[in-house]
């Protein structure tokens, strides 16, 4: 199995390469110039040109790319054009908030969505099913920042029970950490709940029509055992897949939620870097996202084996 | 596979444990006295010589120190300098105060000063004036340095004390070897606050601590001048990109200070007993501008540029921004702003009735032939967005064939370099800069290679007169001369004078009224 | 009380002791609401007025073609139908009316008083739970045993259904077991609580014939030991004859005939029963007949014509030499590691015009891969395929396309082999237009073809879903004929069809062969069908042909052990010819392939066998 | 088809929205671009049915015109990404030699979260309807490619495709006749989801500041502009958010209905 994982990781190198080429060409082809951003609005063309030269932005694109690639191969992702901090360090600072947000959101979503989906499938086409469906589509239809604002204002500010914004690192205490993450996770999780409950319902419906469910009923087993022991495990793989696919969605949503709730995460780092043309950070972060995507897919594949003994590596 | 299951079980157990351990402990301030501030933007560039960005200047005044500084009357007062002497027309000598120390413990020497000035003057507007007049800056001994001039320079103290960004901040000589544009390897100043890289989380927060070895001047604090006595232990500067969130956080007491309170929320904040709103006057106000591109037809025709005077009134944009009258100066017609030393309406081309109708008439009298006008709109700052949108709307109604292109500020700065791509954009600047022709972003950029490429001999003559004027009366006369030329040739059209009020928790007192947020002198009662 | 409605009730073979009566059904009628959402609302009767009884120790065979309602009857008894179904009538289990029980009470009955086994052992066992647990939970649910006792009992049950190493097997998952073992697990599960009634719904249909023999034997043994009443549902007349005391024939939701096996098979009272029996090929029927023989009196195709004797003058139209095919498989058991599966190993044979060569073998023997390789749908490792004298394996794509005209294929699943979106005429003319025939000419040909396969020209403009399985298979045959091929490869072409339809399609194939002089490569697992239709037979086992020869020689003098086992495992549709089925002891280990030292022995008359 | 309630209700709302957008010039009360700072943030009234925004523009007219932009973005993205996705998916699915390269590039695109990719593209290209459409379509296409490729791969194995193959039908003809038509149903369903998610994504881009400039009103940028003000004047985001959410909701249930309707497998359950 270790061998398989290693092979998998090696086979991802092309993906990372493709991502780096995509991002580099994107940055190369589009307007915007960090030198101008550094110099400020009032700088003359001469000033900007001097700074461009100092930053090496006047070198040919291909040369810049290979320089960067060479460094990356040595695990050096460069430094921020603006504050000179290493990209690795900047990303590391942002890992905990984003990963905490994603983990808690995923947990929240699964805990809510899976039972909802199971219920909807169990009582397919009933009123309960319709309500679950409508609620889940509705939560999908409201832009995440609107949900975030409304929750922050009415739940946090008006009641004073939870902080309105910000993030507390785990070292400041689990309670603090959780208190700061509840609302962001819920706002972000609602879309995810919709997605997971829908796939749970669909997957459960599929499984509930399987022969072995009929067998279970023929044995006289009762509803809860059939649903949660016999059906859910069989329905797990599509759910796991969607949870995994949703991670990409979460990363995107995190950009927005991190802004609304002022969480110093990777999403905000990325948006800031994009708006400011901090090329090394953009490239580093995009590679990170590609890595996350790959690792999440690997985890999904491993989870498949947990839920389904037929799958082995 | 069994191992993986075990790990998962463990993870699940941990999650449960975590959620059980939730206590609703809400943030409690530590024993250290600390203030949390949200400034206009993130402090991105930490090199105080490296950018004209206001936010870096704000950072500079906290961590670095200047030789001279401006007081609340606009007068230049000594700060790091103890005494100085104009030896002759071409020689000035300065002596530093005793006890000035950098944050790394080394004393501030004349060598550091000389090196800092030479690094600073290349990118700064004021610095360039000094650079043009100067032969050299020489350290005479540890505390004394001499500026040797090639021609007389009456603005010596202004250039060394004016807050026009970047201001002449002093740093250790070894740091000055870093070329401007590259990040400084470390941030060492001699100002009242110490920067600690390990407590800097770019994009999120930065914590500055009081510099225990700082020796404040004896005079009371007066704007940027006077004794900078720090009464708090820590200043935490947070980045909250969403102003709505920041405002709510201020009301909830999670932060203490917002540099720019959102205009529309001012009424709410004013009613909040826990929050104080601080408005500004004079040089601490802003003025908005539409810089015009003289190289792109039809704006190569001054007559068509002058049409704008007929419909750009000086209150619509601030009102559209959500400001009430108390935070603006309606109808100010001065290039150098109103309520400032060089206020003048000389040569004003504003008609009595400023309206779309007047604009339409004025346009009809020009040779305008329906050429397309492109308005650039910066989207990431509200004033940029609103002012450009209003301009677009006005021009559309007046009868220009106008198109608006929205982009983030970075793109705008980059694209405005192409002279064929644009005609105008909306922007604003602080009175500290605009109040003086020499640091005025559009007047002082006359005839240099700057996007807009405005070049008017009349303005050049006026600027020369201003530089050479021996006294303030002479300078005021020169300012009026510039004003007349500018109204005629129109490098830029102003769209209104307004304040960007700050808001802070009411348990903070003695805050220095300044559009550059200053965190010395203030006291916290907790 | 044995009130039976049909005129042909069971003869009083045994005195009806009411205490022995386990299940008694009366007036059972099941309907289903059709049309949910946007379709028309309506009610459809699935079964109507079903009545019978089963006694202790008795096996009742329920037989019928698809749609006859035999499975619905079982599910109605168990109340396992979807919510939209309503069940009326009386279902008395030991004097208790099941139709009036609450859902909870009924759940108590299921698995405890009635056990049920289903057709597909792979899909009927939960793939993600260990088999031991699946047996234990039944014990726990009905409080027969708990804790360690349940675990021990599960092992005992597995032992009882003759699963070796039962203790170790409890921890295994269904996919780790062979098909036959899975069905044994199903039986163990159904028997866990010692039910009075066992309902077996097509329990052997998905199994190979040798495996089937073992399962039937096991069920008989269990019944002999416990006296369990068994309801045995099947479409296979041979299996029914093998197991049943009484037989119930169903058609379209109604009982056609009900009586003791002997009577039903030997003196059927109803025409339908007779037709059914006539459609079933029996091994041995062809003894002494020179060539293939059509089925008699099965409706419209009854006007059978005797195929002309085989002309052997011509050279082979298809010659396969030393063909080997292997796959790199990435199956469900290993997503990254790929293994090489040698599906076909050194197969060779000739096929002449007008001749039918049958390839028989059990699932996984490589017979379908062989067919696909011949058709060019599967790349081959080595060997040569000559079609009409040209070597297909060495052709360019364009040449191969032309060569393909000479060889066409009929697939197994008539529902999957027609594009559901295309009208029949489009499917039929597609091969023609692809080879440059004008659309007018193609249409004329399509008319001729569809009439040739016994359908009418006005059906040309219909879509596939408007046809039955048998009709579709006729259309597929018509399509295969469109290019006037010399060879038709029929891969399990009739195995998805009901027996009566199967007989008709087989007759059609025989007719067409006679009329057109077609060579037919007939691939099948069904020994009886093969006997009926073929001139020569090749037996495939583990990727190799182990025996090949004239039909009579292979069937009457099987030389290879595997051929003999295959033949003796086939149940005969005649209760008086029951025999101890061979292959009772399923091979539990991995049967080794023929040793590489094996060599061909010629037994004369083209009858050759591979033996060590 | 209309008997399916999801399709009827969802489709009805969508048609209504499209009509409102189409006839916006006739239904508007005040030029949606016309600013009047003196009228800023007026409550809904007979003059301003939905009130006015921070620039004194009439929200009712802006919401009408916003529908035009938002629906255009959704529709254009749906057409563009399904079109491109179909083409690439067919190629990748049928020409196995190209599959590796194409799918690696798609993996690369999928590895970057759609929102971020769209933000990057949109920020870098500049804000305009076209650029926003391109940005979102680039982000959405890989998923369509995957879907189509999967369908093609499974269809290739169908017996009727093999039957066509052995009767000498050419590859291109097989794609057009046997494979392409089977992709339409799932593609249509996918298109509705892309349609809906593009509209939400447009709003998110506006929120980040990389969306369509406010001079072209869209539901997304009306909400984004109004977000600073909602605590004072809730209606500023209420109406555009209501229209956006309702439309997205309707498209989603329409898509669900379409899927149920087109999904033959639905009939398999007894």
Overview in brief:
The complex is a heterotetramer of chains A (313), B (526), C (612) and D (270). Chain B is of the alpha+beta class and 526 residues long.
Note the topology.
The complex is a heterotetramer of chains A (about 325), B (about 525), C (about 600) and D (about 270).
Chain B: H1 2-20, E1 34-38, H2 54-63, E2 65-66, E3 68-70, E4 76-78, E5 81-88, E6 91-96, H3 110-120, H4 125-133, E7 134-139, E8 144-149, H5 156-161, E9 169-170, E10 193-201, E11 205-210, E12 234-238, H6 243-251, E13 257-258, H7 266-271, E14 275-278, E15 286-291, H8 302-306, H9 316-320, E16 328-329, H10 356-364, E17 372-378, H11 382-398, E18 401-407, H12 409-415, E19 424-425, E20 427-430, H13 431-434, H14 457-468, H15 472-489, E21 492-498, E22 502-505, E23 508-509, E24 523-524
Parallel strand pairs in B: 1-12, 1-13, 17-18, 17-19
Antiparallel strand pairs in B: 2-9, 3-4, 5-6, 6-8, 7-8, 10-11, 11-12, 13-22, 14-22, 15-20, 15-21, 16-21, 23-24
Helix pairs in contact in B: 10-11, 14-15
Chain C: E1 21-34, E2 42-55, E3 59-64, H1 70-78, E4 85-93, E5 96-97, H2 103-109, E6 114-117, H3 121-124, H4 131-141, H5 147-160, H6 166-169, H7 179-191, E7 197-201, H8 209-226, E8 229-234, H9 237-243, E9 246-251, E10 254-260, H10 261-266, H11 271-279, E11 316-329, E12 339-352, E13 356-360, H12 367-374, E14 382-387, E15 390-391, H13 397-404, E16 407-410, H14 424-434, H15 439-452, H16 469-481, E17 487-491, H17 499-516, E18 519-524, H18 527-533, E19 536-541, E20 544-550, H19 551-556, H20 561-569, E21 599-602, E22 608-611
Parallel strand pairs in C: 3-8, 3-9, 6-7, 7-8, 13-18, 13-19, 16-17, 17-18
Antiparallel strand pairs in C: 1-2, 1-4, 4-5, 9-10, 11-12, 11-14, 14-15, 19-20, 20-22, 21-22
Helix pairs in contact in C: 4-5, 4-7, 5-7, 7-8, 11-17, 14-15, 14-16, 15-16, 16-17
Chain D: H1 5-22, H2 24-27, H3 59-94, H4 96-111, H5 114-125, H6 129-156, H7 159-166, H8 171-208, H9 219-226, H10 235-262
Task: Report what the structure shows.
The complex is a heterotetramer of chains A (313), B (526), C (612) and D (270). Chain A is mostly helical and 313 residues long. In chain A, helix 6 packs antiparallel against helix 11. Chain B folds into three domains: 149 residues, D-Maltodextrin-Binding Protein, domain 2 (3-Layer(aba) Sandwich); 108 residues, Alpha-Beta Complex (Dipeptide-binding Protein, domain 1), CATH 3.90.76.10; 216 residues, Roll (Dipeptide-binding Protein, domain 3), CATH 3.10.105. Chain B is 28% helix and 21% strand. Chain B contains 15 helices and 24 strands. A seven-stranded mixed sheet of chain B has the order 10-11-12-1-13-22-14. Chain B has a four-stranded antiparallel sheet with strand order 5-6-8-7. In chain B, strands 16-21-15-20 form a four-stranded antiparallel sheet. The termini of chain B are far apart. Chain C has 20 helices and 22 strands. Chain C starts with 20 loop residues before the first strand and ends with a strand. The relative contact order of chain C is 0.11. Chain D has a single domain, classed as MetI-like (MetI-like fold). Chain D starts with a helix and ends in an 8-residue tail after the last helix. Chains B and D meet through helix 9, helix 11 and strand 18 of B and loops of D.
């Amino acid at each position: 199995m270790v061998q398989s994982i290693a092979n998998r990781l090696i086979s991802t190198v092309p993906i990372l390469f493709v991502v780096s080429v995509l991002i580099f060409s994107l940055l190369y082809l589009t307007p915007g110039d960090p030198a101008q951003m550094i110099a400020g609005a009032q700088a003359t063309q001469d000033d900007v040109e001097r700074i461009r030269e100092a930053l090496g932005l006047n070198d040919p694109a291909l040369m810049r790319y290979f320089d960067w690639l060479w460094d990356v191969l040595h695990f050096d992702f460069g430094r921020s054009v603006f504050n000179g901090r290493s990209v690795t360090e900047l990303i590391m600072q942002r890992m905990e908030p984003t990963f905490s947000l994603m983990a808690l959101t995923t947990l929240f979503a699964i805990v809510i969505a899976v039972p909802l989906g199971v219920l909807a499938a169990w009582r397919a086409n009933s009123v309960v099913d319709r309500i679950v469906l409508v609620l889940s589509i509705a939560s999908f239809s409201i832009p995440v920042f609107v949900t975030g604002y409304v929750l922050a204002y009415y739940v946090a500010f008006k009641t004073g029970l939870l902080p309105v914004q910000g993030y507390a690192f785990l070292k400041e205490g689990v309670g603090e950490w959780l208190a700061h993450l509840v609302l962001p996770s819920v706002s972000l999780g609602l879309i995810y709940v919709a997605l997971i409950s829908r796939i749970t319902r669909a997957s459960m419906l599929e499984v509930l029509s399987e022969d072995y469910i009929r067998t279970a009923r023929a044995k006289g087993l009762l509803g809860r055992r059939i649903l949660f022991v016999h059906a859910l495990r069989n329905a797990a793989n599509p759910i796991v897949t969607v949870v995994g696919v949703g991670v990409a969605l979460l990363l995107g949503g995190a950009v927005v939620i991190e802004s609304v709730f002022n969480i110093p995460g990777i999403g905000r780092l990325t948006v800031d870097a994009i708006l400011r043309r901090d090329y090394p950070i953009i490239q580093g972060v995009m590679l990170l996202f590609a890595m996350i995507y790959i690792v999440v897919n690997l985890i999904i594949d491993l989870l498949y084996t947990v839920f389904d003994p037929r799958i082995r590596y | 596979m069994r191992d993986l299951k075990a790990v998962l079980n463990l993870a699940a157990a941990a999650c449960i444990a975590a959620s059980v351990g939730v206590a609703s402990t809400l943030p409690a301030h530590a024993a250290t006295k600390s203030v949390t501030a949200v400034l206009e933007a993130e402090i991105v560039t930490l090199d105080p010589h490296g950018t004209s960005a206001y936010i870096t200047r704000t950072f500079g005044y906290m961590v670095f120190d200047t030789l001279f500084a401006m007081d609340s009357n606009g007068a230049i007062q000594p700060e790091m300098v103890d005494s100085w002497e104009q030896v002759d027309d071409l020689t000035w000598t300065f002596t530093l105060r005793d006890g000035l120390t950098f944050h790394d413990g080394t004393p501030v020497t004349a060598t550091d000063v000389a090196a800092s000035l030479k690094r600073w003057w290349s990118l700064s507007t004021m610095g360039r004036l000094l650079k043009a007049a100067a032969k050299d800056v020489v350290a005479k001994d540890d505390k004394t340095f001499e500026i040797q001039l090639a021609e007389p320079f009456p603005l010596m103290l202004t250039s060394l004390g004016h807050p026009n960004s970047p201001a002449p901040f002093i740093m250790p000589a070894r740091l000055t070897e870093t070329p401007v544009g590259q990040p400084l390897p470390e941030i060492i100043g001699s100002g009242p606050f110490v920067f600690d890289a390990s407590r800097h989380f770019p994009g999120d927060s930065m914590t500055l601590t009081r510099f225990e070895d700082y020796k404040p001047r004896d005079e009371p604090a007066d704007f940027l001048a006077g004794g900078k006595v720090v009464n708090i232990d820590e200043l935490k500067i947070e980045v909250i990109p969403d102003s709505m969130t920041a405002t709510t956080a201020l009301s909830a007491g999670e932060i203490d200070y917002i540099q720019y309170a959102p205009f529309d929320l001012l009424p709410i904040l004013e009613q909040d007993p826990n929050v104080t709103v601080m408005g500004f006057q004079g040089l601490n106000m802003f003025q908005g501008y539409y810089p015009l591109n003289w190289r792109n037809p039809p704006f190569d025709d001054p007559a068509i540029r002058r049409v704008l005077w007929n419909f750009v009134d000086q209150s619509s944009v601030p009102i559209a921004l959500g400001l009430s009258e108390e935070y603006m100066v309606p109808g100010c017609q001065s290039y150098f702003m109103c309520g400032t030393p060089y206020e003048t309406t000389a040569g004003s081309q504003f008609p009595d009735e400023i309206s779309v109708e007047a604009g339409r008439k004025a346009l009809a009298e020009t040779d305008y032939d329906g050429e397309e006008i492109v308005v650039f709109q910066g989207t990431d700052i509200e004033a940029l967005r609103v002012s450009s949108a209003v301009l677009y709307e006005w021009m559309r109604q007046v009868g220009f064939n106008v198109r608006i292109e929205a982009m983030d500020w970075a793109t705008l700065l980059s694209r405005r370099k192409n002279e064929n791509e644009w005609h105008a954009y909306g922007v604003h600047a602080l009175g500290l800069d605009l109040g003086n022709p020499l640091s005025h972003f559009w007047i002082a950029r006359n005839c240099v290679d700057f996007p807009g490429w405005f070049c008017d001999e009349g303005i050049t003559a006026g600027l020369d007169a201003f530089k050479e004027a021996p006294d303030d009366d002479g300078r005021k006369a020169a300012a009026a001369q510039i004003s007349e030329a500018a109204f005629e040739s129109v490098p830029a059209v102003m769209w209104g004078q307004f304040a960007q009020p700050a808001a802070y928790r009411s348990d903070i007192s003695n805050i220095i009224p300044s559009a550059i947020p200053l965190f010395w002198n203030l006291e916290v009662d907790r | 009380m044995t009130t039976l409605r049909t005129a042909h009730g069971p003869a009083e073979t045994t005195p009806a002791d009411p205490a022995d009566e386990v299940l008694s059904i009366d007036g059972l009628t099941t309907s289903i609401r059709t049309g949910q959402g946007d379709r028309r609302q309506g009610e459809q009767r699935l079964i109507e007025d079903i009545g019978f009884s089963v006694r202790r120790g008795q096996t009742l065979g329920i037989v019928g073609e698809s749609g006859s309602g035999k499975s619905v009857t079982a599910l109605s008894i168990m109340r396992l139908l979807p919510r939209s179904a309503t069940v009326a009538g009386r279902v008395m289990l030991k004097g208790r009316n099941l139709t009036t029980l609450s859902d909870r009470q009924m759940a108590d009955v299921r698995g405890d008083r009635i056990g049920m086994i289903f057709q597909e052992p792979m899909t009927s066992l939960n793939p993600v739970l260990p088999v031991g647990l699946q047996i234990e939970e039944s014990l726990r649910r009905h409080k027969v045993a708990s804790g360690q006792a349940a675990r021990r009992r599960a092992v005992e049950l597995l032992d009882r259904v003759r699963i070796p190493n039962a203790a170790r097997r409890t921890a295994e998952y269904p996919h780790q077991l062979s098909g036959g073992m899975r069905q044994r697990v199903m039986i163990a599960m159904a028997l866990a609580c010692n039910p009075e009634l066992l309902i077996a719904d097509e329990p052997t249909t998905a199994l190979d014939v040798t495996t089937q023999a073992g399962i039937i034997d096991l069920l008989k043994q269990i019944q002999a030991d416990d006296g369990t009443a068994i309801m045995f549902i099947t479409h296979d007349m041979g299996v029914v004859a093998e197991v049943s005391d009484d037989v119930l024939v169903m058609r379209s939701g109604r009982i056609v005939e009900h009586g003791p096996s002997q009577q039903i098979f030997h003196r059927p009272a109803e025409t339908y029963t007779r037709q059914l029996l006539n459609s079933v090929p029996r091994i041995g029927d062809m003894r002494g007949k020179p060539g293939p023989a059509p089925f008699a009196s099965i409706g419209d195709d009854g006007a059978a014509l005797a195929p002309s004797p085989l002309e052997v003058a011509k050279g082979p139209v298809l010659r396969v030499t030393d063909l080997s095919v292997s796959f790199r498989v990435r199956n469900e058991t290993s997503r990254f590691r790929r293994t090489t599966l040698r599906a076909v190993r050194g197969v060779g044979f000739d096929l002449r015009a007008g001749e039918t060569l049958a390839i028989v073998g059990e699932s996984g023997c490589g017979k379908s891969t062989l067919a696909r390789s011949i058709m060019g749908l599967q790349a081959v490792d080595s060997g040569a395929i000559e079609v009409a004298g040209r070597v297909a394996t060495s052709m360019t794509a364009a040449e191969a396309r032309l060569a393909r005209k000479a060889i066409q294929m009929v697939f197994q699943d008539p529902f999957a082999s027609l594009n559901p979106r295309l009208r029949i005429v489009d499917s039929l003319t597609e091969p023609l237009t692809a080879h440059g025939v004008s659309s007018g000419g193609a249409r004329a040909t399509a008319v001729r073809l569809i009439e040739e396969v016994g359908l009418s020209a006005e059906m040309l403009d219909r879509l596939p879903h408007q046809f039955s399985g048998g009709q579709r298979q006729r259309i597929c045959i018509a399509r295969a004929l469109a290019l006037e091929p010399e060879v038709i490869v029929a891969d399990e072409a009739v195995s998805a069809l009901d027996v009566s339809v199967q007989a008709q399609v087989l007759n059609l194939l025989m007719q067409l062969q006679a009329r057109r002089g077609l060579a037919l490569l007939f691939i099948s697992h069904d020994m009886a069908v093969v006997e009926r239709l073929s001139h020569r037979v090749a037996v495939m086992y583990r990727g190799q042909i182990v025996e090949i020869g004239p039909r009579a020689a292979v069937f009457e003098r099987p030389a290879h052990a595997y051929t003999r086992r295959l033949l003796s495992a086939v149940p005969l549709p005649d209760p008086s010819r029951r025999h101890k089925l061979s292959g009772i002891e399923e091979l539990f280990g991995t049967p080794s392939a023929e040793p590489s030292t094996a060599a061909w022995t010629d037994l004369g008359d083209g009858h050759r066998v591979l033996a060590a | 088809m209309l008997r399916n309630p999801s399709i009827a209700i969802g489709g009805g709302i969508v048609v209504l929205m499209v009509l409102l957008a189409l006839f916006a010039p006739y239904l508007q009360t005040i030029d949606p671009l016309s600013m009047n700072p003196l009228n800023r943030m007026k409550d809904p009234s007979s003059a301003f049915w939905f009130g006015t925004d921070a620039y004194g523009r009439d929200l009712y007219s802006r919401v009408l015109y916003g529908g035009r932009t938002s629906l255009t973005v959704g529709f254009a993205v749906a057409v563009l990404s399904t079109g491109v996705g179909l083409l690439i998916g067919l190629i990748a699915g049928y020409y196995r030699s190209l599959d590796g390269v194409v799918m690696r590039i798609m993996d690369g695109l999928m590895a970057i979260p759609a929102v971020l990719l769209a933000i990057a593209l949109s920020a870098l290209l500049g804000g305009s309807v076209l650029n926003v459409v391109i940005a979102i379509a680039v982000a959405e296409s890989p998923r369509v490619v995957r879907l189509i490729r999967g369908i093609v791969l499974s269809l290739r194995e169908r017996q009727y495709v093999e039957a066509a193959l052995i009767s000498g039908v050419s590859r291109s003809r097989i794609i057009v006749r046997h494979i392409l038509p089977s992709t339409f149903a799932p593609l249509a369903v996918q298109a509705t989801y892309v349609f809906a998610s593009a509209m939400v994504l447009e709003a998110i881009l506006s929120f980040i500041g990389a969306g369509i400039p406010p001079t072209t009103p869209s539901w997304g940028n009306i909400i984004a502009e109004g977000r600073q003000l909602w605590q004072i004047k809730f209606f500023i985001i209420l109406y555009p958010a209501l229209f956006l959410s309702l439309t997205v909701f309707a498209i989603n249930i329409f898509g669900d209905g379409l899927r149920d309707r087109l999904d033959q497998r639905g009939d398999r359950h007894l």
